[in-house]
Write a structure and sequence with these properties.
Blueprint lengths: L27 H6 L6 H5 L10 H4 L10 E4 L7 E4 L2 E2 L1 H5 L4 H4 L3 E6 L8 E4 H17 L8 E5 L5 H12 L2 E4 L6 H11 L3 E5 L1 E4 L2 E4 L1 H13 L6 E5 L17 E3 H4 L13 E2 L3 E7 L7 E6 L1 H13 L8 E4 L6 H13 L3 E5 L10 H9 L3 E4 L1 H10 L13 E4 L6 H11 L5 E4 L34 E4 L13 E6 L9 E2 L3 H8 L17 E9 L5 E6 L3 E4 L2 E4 H8 L5 E11 L3 E10 L7 H14 L8 E4 L13 H8 L14 H17 L8 H9 L5
Parallel strand pairs: 4-17, 6-7, 6-8, 7-14, 8-11, 11-12, 16-17, 16-18, 18-19, 19-20, 29-30
Antiparallel strand pairs: 1-2, 3-13, 4-5, 9-10, 14-15, 15-23, 21-22, 22-24, 24-25, 26-27, 28-29
Length: about 700
């Protein structure tokens, strides 16, 4: 078989074949009420006004003492924002709203079981709960400013209460996503040197009451193996007064929070005034190997940035009812469920469970009943909702003014469904690109001023200066059709301060590749490497192609997985698609596509043919998949992310790794049997992989 030829791209370049989509203007009614409707705001946040432009964000907050320096570049790249300023994050999210908004709902919590009552927490009630728990943390646990505490909590009101109580004391919190294992929680406890673990006995997921306390014992034991001893485990009860776990409480270590709180009823704790650069929280990312990566975020810079971006890019007003359907265990939930919305004094909705439980209409019933007018979710969830109920939104009387998408690039086909069906053609769609390390949005539109373009996140967010570099550090020009590594040329207030306890790793990962002069104190010499491939259109809009390491190199052509998956999703019956590499003797790597169909549809031989034809049409013959596997479902995490490393392992006859934390681990064996049986029958079994190839497959889809 002849080797296909074509231009060999540099390591930073990814072949781009995506067609540019047309743009859509915002509705006039939205523009009329928008926080950012004055075109002058773009100039105010232009490069000529950097860094002082970000004082506009800082002035959204209440400060105990003013800053004397907006951006301190004395120790690059450890930037310090609003140096000299003093404030308290909890005061800004709770106390200062009491004079005019004490009876406004701060949080509306929706339990997963529909027969359980929705809970409304006013700003006054939030103030009471936060103060009582802060008093407990200070006096019963002995926590004080600078200490760390780990949470392993699900989507319940107790989580934002605990976060804000820590912020009130100046204690650094570290929330571990509730779906993570006890072992994952334990290594994060050890890395942060926490003495206290806050957890819950159980919570509802997919109609079942999950025993969550069992993970606490695993976490304590895992931390002990790393030399860290947990002194106290505080256990909230999902049903107060009733223990919902089969795991015994450990005498002298484990305590029910609802029993302890009686001793702190009515207590108030003065908010501790903190330096702007004091750490507010740690958020651990899912690195591929080695020590956990604890992203450290500041108090003043971070809170300013999430307040400003929530006001201007999400268009949040205090009178809005805003629902971010993410999990607080991820950065999206920290920034745009808790800190950003509450800093602006709005009402933030929390939902405990699965968005499709008990049926495809659940999200739309919640939106209709609560009067939600801003809806914020991820492409993963959008694809899931489109798959199980493509016409379901039509049956509900809700009206969104704005909808966002966050977490990964959204395929144009899915974008159109989101806009037309969920938004009913009346809502603005704000596509946002950012990550844990950045604290808030990097690429997105100003919804009243910049048109929507399906599949493109937009230009840089206010005050953000993106650039695409090739492997040699040369700028890839807008409109060239070439892709490269997207970086941010300038610091911004939301960027992580460091990796907790690993400053060298921080510099190496984010700044080492394109730093022009390690001795320079000029911020221009320190571009931030985001880790994504991207292409910039002639209009300055960026299309994110996925993580740099999540590309498939076919005969020298580096194909972005998102482009492959987007092409597959243009096939009418396809609901979800995932592209993975398979080791190929001739081309190095070949593309294998996994697709799941919409409910009620049965696959036929023509389905795979249509997927192949769509990829050839949208991208070209170089991207033709070696196989199209039609599966009943994709292996997914509890947050709905497709685990591409698992199916890549199946395609390559290698170990798929730990699947115990998947939402549907049973599907893995089903897919493995089907795919590998067919490959064996065809004689299509790869040779034994080298150690490097095996590592590539194991880490596919899990890049830092």
């Amino acid at each position: 078989m002849a080797r296909e030829t074509g231009p060999r791209l540099s390591e930073a370049q990814i072949a781009v074949h995506w067609r540019e989509e047309r743009t859509y203007p915002p509705p006039a009614g939205f523009v009329a009420q928008a926080n950012a409707a004055d075109p002058g705001i773009i100039e105010r946040f232009g490069e000529a006004n950097f860094p002082d432009c970000f004082t506009e964000y800082a002035e959204l907050l209440s400060w105990d003492a003013p800053w004397h320096t907006v951006l301190d570049t004395g120790d690059p790249p450890f930037w310090k924002w609003f140096t000299g300023g003093m404030l308290n994050a909890c005061y800004n999210c709770v106390d200062r709203h009491l004079p005019t908004g004490r009876n406004r709902a701060a949080l509306i919590w929706v339990p997963e079981p529909e027969d359980q009552a929705t809970e409304t927490v006013t700003y006054q009630e939030l103030y009471r709960r936060v103060n009582e728990f802060a008093a407990l943390l200070r006096e019963f646990c002995g926590l004080e400013s600078g200490d760390r505490v780990t949470f392993h909590l699900p989507m319940v009101p107790e989580l934002p209460v605990a976060m804000l109580a820590c912020a009130r004391l100046g204690v650094i919190h570290s929330e571990v996503f509730g779906g993570f294992s006890g072992a994952a929680c334990g290594d994060r406890i050890a890395d942060s040197a926490s003495r206290v673990l806050v957890t819950m006995d159980g919570y509802y997921r997919g109609g079942s009451l999950v025993d969550h306390k069992a993970k606490a014992d695993e976490a304590v034991e895992a931390a002990r193996r790393y030399g860290r001893e947990i002194e106290k485990v505080l256990v909230w009860r999902r049903h107060p007064g009733r223990y919902s776990s089969r795991t015994p409480m450990v005498l002298g270590r484990d305590f029910f929070v609802d029993e302890l709180l009686g001793g702190y009823h009515g207590r108030s704790v003065p908010p501790v005034s903190m330096p702007a650069e004091a750490p507010l929280f740690l958020m651990y990312t899912s690195g591929t190997t080695g020590r956990p990566k604890g992203c450290q975020h500041s108090t003043g810079g971070y809170l300013s940035y999430v307040a400003g971006t929530a006001r201007y890019h999400l268009d949040i007003h205090p009178e809005d009812t805003y629902w971010c359907a993410a999990d607080i265990g991820w950065i999206t939930g920290h920034s745009y469920i808790v800190y950003g919305p509450l800093a602006l004094g709005t009402t933030s909705v929390l939902y405990e469970g699965v968005p499709t439980y008990p049926d495809a209409g659940r999200c739309w019933r919640i939106a209709e009943r609560l009067g939600v007018n801003i809806f914020h979710t991820a492409p993963t969830t959008i694809r899931m909702l489109r798959k199980v109920g493509p016409e379901e939104p039509r049956g509900y009387d809700y009206r969104f003014k704005l909808m966002t998408t966050v977490g990964e690039p959204i395929e144009p086909e899915v974008w159109h469904w989101y806009h037309d069906e969920v938004g009913k053609g009346q809502a603005v769609v704000v596509d946002t690109w950012w990550m844990t390390e950045t604290g808030g949005f990097l690429g997105t539109t100003l919804p009243a001023l910049q048109p929507m373009k399906p599949g493109s996140c937009g230009p840089g967010a206010l005050g953000i200066l993106p650039v695409i570099y090739d492997e040699d550090g040369a700028v890839v020009a807008a409109g060239s059709g070439r892709a490269g590594n997207i970086c941010i040329r300038n610091p911004w207030p939301g960027v992580l301060q460091t990796i907790w306890g690993q400053p060298e790793r921080f510099v190496d990962i984010y700044y080492g590749r394109y730093c022009r002069d390690p001795g320079s104190k000029d911020w221009h010499d320190w571009p931030f490497l985001c880790g994504d491939g991207a292409v910039e259109a002639s209009d300055g809009y960026f299309r994110i192609l996925g993580r740099i390491d999540d590309v498939i190199n076919v005969a020298g052509h580096r194909l972005g997985t998102k482009e492959l998956e987007s092409a597959a999703l243009t096939v009418e019956e396809v609901a979800e698609a995932a592209a993975v590499p398979a080791v190929d003797e001739v081309r190095g790597r070949a593309v294998e596509m996994y697709v799941a169909l919409k409910p009620g549809l049965s696959p036929g031989p023509e389905t795979g043919q249509r997927v192949t034809a769509a990829i050839e049409r949208e991208i070209g013959k170089i991207a033709r998949p070696a196989h199209v596997w039609i599966v009943p479902d994709m292996p997914k995490t509890r947050s709905g992310k497709i685990m591409r490393r698992v199916i890549a392992g199946i395609s390559n006859f290698t170990d798929v790794g730990d699947v115990s934390t998947l939402a549907n681990p049973e599907i893995v064996e089903d897919i493995r049997h089907r795919v590998q049986s067919e490959k064996l029958a065809r004689g299509d079994v790869p040779r034994e992989l080298t150690a490097q190839e095996a590592q590539e497959i194991r880490e596919f889809g899990t890049a830092e």
